TrEMBL record:
This is Uncharacterized protein. The keyword Chloroplast does not apply. InterPro entries: Nucleoporin_Nup133/Nup155_C, Nucleoporin_Nup133/Nup155_N, Nucleoporin_Nup155, Nucleoporin_Nup155_C_1. Keywords: Nucleus, Transport. Coiled coil: none annotated. It is found in: Nucleus. It comes from the Eukaryota.
Length: 1052
């Protein structure tokens, strides 16, 4: 029930608002979203390392589903076919005048030169209007007031103007739009370029493209374009034409020409233009294109509607809807609640508008008297089949402010996403009455019945055109979001804006959303439940109003300062902002229904019973609880059921949700979390009550808060992975696991164990990449601990550090350094055996064995066995006597697996040892064979050879073999040693002489004859010749005399 003022004061002591100074610095109550930057640790400082129990998250997820079910309204067809309608004049204006921009005086002066015709229209795609006076086209930038461009390079009177995107590859890249100018004689294409492509309010440049098509004398009265650049036109003869243009003329085609899409085979006849002119199907009123379904509607003066489906090489005529008056009259009179009559004299279709917010209703036709004819498709999807009239709705609110109650004719009508605007002549000829019509969202949600509200405002001058400014999100990005539930959509986009063009200028109107109206009511309430505020709560229900109070109290970007414009100065606006937030918080906690077993009461001011149809009682939580559910579910609407990862056009892995959208969602979640943290009693389970329903609600609120914090972490987690090249991480993952990520939704990642495990695998892969690139993981670990601690606990950090040491051990060459890394990895793994899985243990042990660290594999397996059975319950387990305790059986099974690793490691070591010994023996014999069969000398100098010979002589003298064998071998060694000494003398003598032949004497041992004939004798080494004769025992008297004579002669 609604709290009394006294109880309200007590509640205010418990709860506090999130004031502007308490909001995160990146998001003030009315600021535009901040540029992308990762959330700082301070924002997430209250996050816990331990995720909440899974059942709490699943309970919260079920509550989110309830929120989505409430927001998921039936299709528009389901509402309309009930033939029950509740209409009322809205107590709050549907649209507000945002600003008026007068037509520049210089353009007004152009009316003085008018000769034959004048008309105007809107180019809302580029925030401009056009004014045509005879053969001159003026393009007016109404956003800048006085800026305009003029085109008057042709003499013919202009009949119609349109704007379309250019075909690719035809024009220079600066040209972003094409202005189509149609005269009686020709169709001209003008290129349009902006000074800055991201801001269409900037200066523009018009280019004459020299692309012109002849009309063959058939004026074109309407032009429409598609997003992919196709141009369609309506001729005064009632035919549909497509303008075909190319970069240059072809062999059999012209550069630019008009193709008749509705004439059939007669278009190929020589006299086709003349025949077409006289074979008129009625003056064309309008040509409309449904971009979503690729359907073109062609409305003529006979109230017939031709339906065309666009195909790649033209259009296909699907259906002609005619005899509409009789069909509409029959449908309307069968409507039990119809008011008045549908008169044939007043039946004239003014315009046709696509209905994109429905899957089965394709378009609505609006008559000049204000009747709306809704046409549905025979199929239940968006595929075009046969269209038929489903419902006729009578005019609402058209008589308000008009000249006479019966004079309600519209001269301009606009419809988009369930909102209709129509201009009628008012009591004053200087004013138009603009009637606004929209669904009553409160009734749609509460009673599931179609209900409409209307209001009106006055516009200066006659209205020529109405268009909607392209819808944008809170970052200013254009978006296409449609639906009947404005309570949900108002958290996704800025307020809708409509441009009304009249002969005096432009009026820009804002569509007032429920939250805009509530803001103004709060500011006017003086913190009291005023009658207007109570009316608002009755219209939308206490749960939906609580959700909006919470939206305002948290400073969501949808809380605009538009309603505060009257405050004046920035200081007053800031003061109003603080007042608004504090008042919204107060109303949120005071507007509350208690948990009950009765039927839901949508507001505490209405005691009527709106129970279940069968009168049964069902437990319901308070309006505050459902308000939190609705607000949180709407914040997570864009991501909750969507995939986390997708492949880009380049087949690269990336976040499925734009990174800027994730940042915006994160900021909104942070603001909500700040609000809940500032009011701890609201979600704390420590607050207990004797009422079991209150305790259940308190636990549910606590679960929602936990889900909120886990989602904040999940977003930070994906942001961090994106910062470290998400595609590279996925390329490093086992290809067999990739399909699991293709189906991973945000809900699964946050609430399921599988999702958490897949997230942890991404972390492990990131750490592995860091290590492979010789980058320390400390910085990444710190960011993970600060921003998503439940995804990356202290145990995960230790495990990652252990992985880093193991990877480094694989890459170092030093045995001592490798062993240090292996031992450190074992020490760290031993600290976190409780988080090791069987597969991880196997992988680590395999790595240890491959690195010859068998000790580590055995020790880690034994510690794992102790961790999985820390109580020792499986030690005495006998498998022959099965235990009834499944935990004991599980512990026994895990211990067996661990012991299996131990035995496998030991067996591997035995096998490796055996193989190693056998391999050593094989290698030794192989080396012996190589040495024995080799004739190559060793690479050593002569001194080293003599040294080895001396050692060999000493060893031979100490040998214990038979005397004959040793004596012979010893004599050979001594002779070789003596000759080697002579060779050493010869080498030194040649080296002293500077003779390079000494180098050969270092390479091998020569015989005494070789030394004499090749060295001593040729180089006249007389002293060494005498030494050779002495060593060899050769007696040659003549040679001795000759040598001594030479020595004496050298001395003389």
């Amino acid at each position: 029930m609604f709290s009394t003022p006294a109880s309200s004061q007590r509640q205010q002591q418990q709860y506090s608002a999130t004031s502007p100074r308490n909001l995160p610095k990146t998001l003030s109550p009315f600021s535009s979203p901040s540029p992308y930057k990762p959330s700082s640790p301070s924002k997430l400082s209250n996050l816990s390392y331990n995720p909440p129990p899974q059942n709490q998250l699943l309970d919260a997820a079920q509550n989110l589903k309830k929120g989505y079910d409430i927001d998921a309204l039936k299709d528009m067809q389901e509402f309309l076919k009930s033939n029950v309608i509740n209409e009322q004049t809205f107590k709050f204006p549907i649209v507000d005048k945002f600003k008026s921009i007068p037509l520049p005086q210089i353009l007004l002066d152009q009316y003085n030169y008018l000769q034959t015709s004048c008309f105007m229209g809107l180019l809302h795609e580029i925030n401009r209007a056009y004014i045509v006076i005879d053969n001159r086209l003026f393009i007016w930038n109404y956003e800048k007031g006085e800026e305009y461009h003029c085109f008057e390079d042709q003499e013919e009177t202009i009949r119609s103007v349109g704007i379309v995107k250019p075909l690719p590859g035809i024009f220079i890249k600066q040209i972003e739009w094409i202005i189509v100018v149609a005269t009686k004689a020709e169709v001209i294409l003008l290129g349009l370029a902006f000074a800055s492509s991201d801001n269409e309010t900037n200066d523009l440049t018009l280019y004459n493209t020299n692309i012109v098509a002849s009309t063959d004398g058939i004026p074109m009265n309407a032009v429409i374009g598609t997003k992919n650049g196709r141009i369609f036109m309506a001729g005064v003869n009632g035919h549909l034409y497509e303008l075909i243009y190319h970069k240059s003329d072809g062999w059999f085609t012209r550069k630019c020409y008009l193709r008749n899409c509705s004439a059939g085979f007669t278009q190929y006849l020589p006299l086709q233009p003349i025949l077409s002119y006289f074979n008129s199907q009625g003056l064309v009123k309008q040509i409309v294109f449904d971009e979503k379904r690729q359907i073109l509607y062609f409305l003529n003066g006979n109230n017939d509607i031709d339906v065309y489906l666009l195909i790649s090489n033209g259009v296909r005529h699907v259906q002609k809807i005619s005899n509409l008056y009789n069909t509409a009259k029959h449908t309307y009179e069968n409507y039990s609640h119809h008011r008045g009559n549908l008169e044939e004299n007043d039946f004239s279709i003014l315009s046709v508008h696509p209905v994109v917010e429905s899957t089965t209703i394709f378009f609505v036709a609006i008559t000049t008297s204000g009747f709306r004819l809704y046409f549905r498709n025979s199929r239940t999807d968006d595929q075009l089949s046969t269209l038929s009239l489903m419902s006729v709705k009578a005019p609402i609110g058209l008589s308000q402010g008009t000249a006479n109650p019966g004079e309600t004719d519209l001269h301009v009508a606009y419809y988009s996403n369930a909102v209709m605007l129509g201009a009628t002549t008012s009591k004053s000829e200087q004013l138009d009455c603009l009637v606004a019509l929209a669904p009553d969202v409160g009734n749609l949600i509460q009673k599931s019945l179609w209900s409409e509200i209307s209001s009106y405002t006055f516009i200066n001058g006659k209205t020529w055109a109405i268009a909607e400014v392209p819808l944008t999100n809170f970052r200013g990005k254009k978006v296409d979001i449609f639906g009947l539930n404005e309570l949900e959509l108002q958290l996704l986009t800025n307020p809708r804006k409509f441009v009304i063009l009249g002969y005096t200028g432009v009026n820009i109107l804002n569509k007032r959303r429920p939250i805009d109206i509530l803001q103004q009511l709060i500011l006017d309430s003086n913190n009291q439940f005023t009658p207007k505020l109570v009316d608002f709560i009755n219209s939308y229900g206490s749960e939906q109003t609580c959700a909006m109070f919470l939206t305002i109290a948290c400073g969501h970007p949808s809380v605009s300062s538009i309603s505060l414009a009257a405050a004046g100065t920035p200081r007053q606006i800031i003061s109003s902002s603080a007042t608004l937030i504090n008042s919204a918080r107060k109303f949120f906690f005071e507007l509350n229904t208690k948990p009950n077993l009765n039927q839901r009461m949508n507001n505490p001011f209405d005691n009527s019973n709106r129970g279940n149809p069968d009168g049964s009682a069902a437990p319901n939580f308070s309006s505050r609880h459902l308000g939190l559910v609705l607000y949180l579910s709407r914040l997570l609407k864009q991501l909750w059921n969507s995939n986390v990862i997708k492949r880009s056009e380049n087949n690269e892995f990336q976040s499925n949700i734009d990174i800027f959208e994730l940042v915006d969602t994160q900021n909104n979640l942070i603001s909500l979390n700040n609000f809940l943290e500032a009011n701890p009693n609201f979600t704390s389970v420590r607050v207990s009550s004797t009422d079991n329903l209150i305790n259940l609600e308190q636990q549910s609120l606590h679960n929602l808060h936990e889900l909120l914090k886990q989602t904040m972490e999940a977003i930070s987690f994906i942001q961090l992975l994106s910062d470290h090249n998400l595609n590279l991480i996925f390329e490093s993952i086992n290809k067999n696991i990739i399909p699991q990520y293709s189906n991973l939704t945000w809900e699964m990642m946050i609430t399921s164990k599988t999702g958490r495990d897949l997230g942890k695998l991404l972390i492990e892969t990131l750490v592995k990449i860091q290590v492979e690139n010789q980058i320390s993981i400390d910085a990444v670990s710190e960011m993970l601990r600060q921003r998503c601690p439940s995804f990356y606990s202290p145990e995960n950090a230790i495990f990652s550090k252990a992985n880093e040491h193991l990877e480094r051990a694989k890459n170092v060459s030093s045995k001592s350094e490798k062993m240090e890394h292996l031992k450190e990895s074992l020490r760290l793994y031993s600290r976190v055996t409780n988080i090791l899985s069987y597969d991880k243990l196997k992988q680590i042990c395999d790595d240890y064995i491959s690195l010859n660290f068998h000790e580590g594999a055995v020790n880690l397996s034994l510690q794992y066995a102790q961790a999985v059975d820390y109580s020792g319950a499986a030690v005495g387990y006998n498998p022959l006597i099965p235990s009834t305790d499944p935990l004991v059986q599980q512990a026994f099974s895990l211990r067996l697996q661990a012991y299996g690793f131990v035995f496998d490691t030991l067996s591997s070591l035995d096998e490796e040892t055996k193989q190693s010994l056998e391999e050593v023996e094989k290698i030794r014999h192989k080396l012996y064979n190589i040495i024995l069969s080799s004739n190559d000398d060793y690479e050593m100098n002569l001194e080293r050879r003599i040294s080895y010979l001396s050692s060999a002589i000493v060893n031979a003298r100490s040998a214990k073999a038979s005397a004959n064998d040793v004596g012979t071998f010893l004599n050979d060694l001594e002779e070789i040693s003596e000759v080697a000494s002579v060779q050493l003398e010869i080498r030194d003598a040649l080296r002293n002489q500077g003779n390079e032949n000494y180098l050969l004497l270092d390479e091998t041992l020569f015989t005494i004859s070789h030394l004499f004939n090749k060295y001593a004798r040729p180089f006249q080494l007389d002293e060494l010749i005498l030494l050779i004769l002495h060593t060899s025992g050769h007696k040659d008297i003549s040679l001795v005399k000759e040598s001594w004579s030479s020595i004496i002669q050298k001395c003389i």
